[in-house]
Each structure stands twice: as C-alpha cells, then as structure tokens.
Here is the input.
Amino acid sequence: MGVTGATGPVMDRDEVDRALARLGAEHEAIETSLLALQDHAGRRLLEGADLTGTTKERWTSADASITLLWAYFDAYSDTFRSARDIRSRRRWSSREDLVELTELLRGECVTLAGSATATANAPTLQGTGKLSQRYSLAALVERMNELYATSLDMVVTADAVWSALPARIDLLAAELQRTRQLAHSVGVRPGEHPAGDDLERITRTLTALRERVISDPLAFWLPAQGSSAPGGGRPDTTVYDREARALEDVRREIDAVLTVRQDAEARLVKLRDVLSRADRTLAEARSARGEVLAKIAASEVPAVSGPPTALQEQLAMASDYRRHAQWHRLSPLLEALEEKAEDELMRARESLTAVTQPLAVRAELRGRLDAYRAKVARYGLAEDPLLIERYDAARRMLWSAPCDLRVAEQAVLRYQQAAAEYFGGPRVPGQAGPSDRRGEY
Here is the structure.
C-alpha cells in the first residue's frame, strides 16, 4: 500500500487486479439478472396489460425502477470498462494509473442524471430532491440490488397470480358451462329453481373475478409473513374457492334433480295405476250397490262416492310440473300424492266391502243351507218331508229377488234346527225348536 489520496490509501497493483476480477464477475451477474428480468414473461405481460388499482400503481414505479436499473448498469459498465482500460495500458501500472484506478474503484466517481419522470416514480430517489447523484461502484451496486429486488418482486408476484388464477378460473368456468347445460336440460333455470339462480350468480362472479385478476393481479396476492424473498407468498384464492364450493353444491342439487327426474315417470305411472284401481273399485262398488238394491230387500246399503277430482287435478299438476321440468315443485307433490292415493284405494276397497256385505251374507247362508242338505243326505234323511219342506222354503227365499236376508236367515236356522234334532246333536242356537216336528210346515 503506497500513498494516500482523497479516497484513502492508493491501491497497489494486486489490489486493483483483485478488484477488477471481482467487478468483472459482478458485472456479468448483474447483466445476466437484468436480461432475465427484461425477458421475464411477467414483465412482458405487465407491459401489454391494461392495468388498474394496486398493480397499476406498483407497475408504474417498477417500470421506472427498471429504466433506472439499465441507466445505472450502463454507468457501472462504463466505469468498469474505463478502469479495465487504464489497467491494460501497461503491465506494471504507474503511480498515476494506480491513483486514477483507486478513484474509479473506490471513489464516488459515477454521476447519474435521471429523467424527472423516472426519478419521480423510482422509490429509491423519492424524497431526495435531486435529479442527479454521485455514487461509488459499491453504492451503485447496492442501489441496483434494491431496485432489482423491488422490481423483481412486483413482476414475479403478478406473474404468479396470472399463472395460477386465470387458468383455474377458466377450468372452473368450463365446468360451470357444462353444469349450466346439464341444468338447462333438466329444467333448472334462473327464476324457476334456486340452483339456476346460483349458477347465474356464479357466472357473474367468475366473469368479474377474471377481469379483475387480469387487470389487478396484485390485489389477489397474500405475502408470506417474515419473507423478504421476491415473490414470497401465494395467490389469494378466497373468492375462487368460494365459488368452486358453490358450484359443487349446485352440482349436488342437480344430481338430486336428476334422481327426481329419473324416478318421476315411474312414480307418476304408479300413481296413475293406484288411482285407476281406486276408480275401478269404486265403479265396482257402485255396480254392486245396484245389484244389492235389486236382489236384497230390507237392507241398508251405503252410498258410494264418486272418484276424487282433487287427486286427479293434483296428478295433472304433477304431470305438468314434470313436463316443464319443475322438479323442486314436483318432488313434494309426488310424496303427498302417493300417500293420498294409497288412502283413496283403501277407502274404495272399504266401500266395496261395505256395499257387497249383504251379498256376502246371502252367499254364506246359501253355503250353510247346501252344507246341511249334504249332511242330511249322508244320514239318509233326504226324503224326510219336514226337512224337504223347510229346505225348499229357505231355498226359495235365498234364490229369489229381492231376498229378505232376515227372513231367509230364519228359514235356514229352522232347517238347521230340524236337521239337528234328527242327528241327535245340540239344538242350533238362535231358533227355538218346535214341539212337534211336523207342526208348522
């Protein structure tokens, strides 16, 4: 180390050579980084995008910083080349050369005059009140590192959001479109089904979300806590995730609608069958009532109601719901109709049973009469005059129209009583036996 100058001790030849080697490597690294930033896909997208909001503000600053970076780098390169040229004049540098090299390598020998616009927008010069400044090479590198870090952070952040969210939004929008088509095919439409309204809202939200992500990607960035690395953080997918969940809910709703649609026709066919059977049963009951009134005398026959028009109207409404794919209305209506239809079929069967009861009584009396006659024949009493007379009297009553069931029942009981006396068995209950088996008839 030799004489001392304004910048401190004058560097010797070895110190100069080491400093130039370090500057050469540093210059190459800085140039590589700047070229990578210049060619970065995020920077190119930012240059061509119609930006808004936070991204527009930060890109204005970052763009100015990148402009300053190249100006700083050019000044840095010029100073480095000057120092290298001085050192290459001679193999053994003179004292004057070493003094000049020391000034270049260590002193504030770089004067930069930036444009007013670039200086105003660059964060490192705001508040200095200067349009030009002097730097040493070390200070200039430090300043370039600051500008590079902030610019790269902005570019990487915007690129990360653009790489993540628009593609995911497009995939979700494609799924949304398929879901809309499926929903339309099953009648899930806006204003007619809640899921149709949800699809419209999701469509509007995704469209607005994509537009804002494209114009203001930094509004969808969550910085990592405690991280100073460029691009530290992750895209904010809160809105996207919410709409993806909402679309999944709609898909489940449409699946339920599809289930209703698939089952609706079978359920409607079954309903029509149940109601048709109820109508046929009521028609049979009405026909049987006429027969009972014609064939049975002195019997109270209940009236038979007509088919329930309200159920038919509701069934027609259910068919209309299905035709217009109003599944959310059809499902509860089908459940109510199925219960009412079963009740109606049961009521019709009960009505038929009540109406045909006199005919069943007559059939039971006929069966009892014939059974006793067969028994009498087995005992060899088929030719007994009293039994023949009482049998004929009961048969005339049971096979005549109109038939008085109360009188016919008494005639059957009298025949049974007379036969029982011949058999030596117990007296038939419900009828007092005659003192003389030939007395009345």
User: Anything to note?
Assistant: Residues 160-257 form one domain.
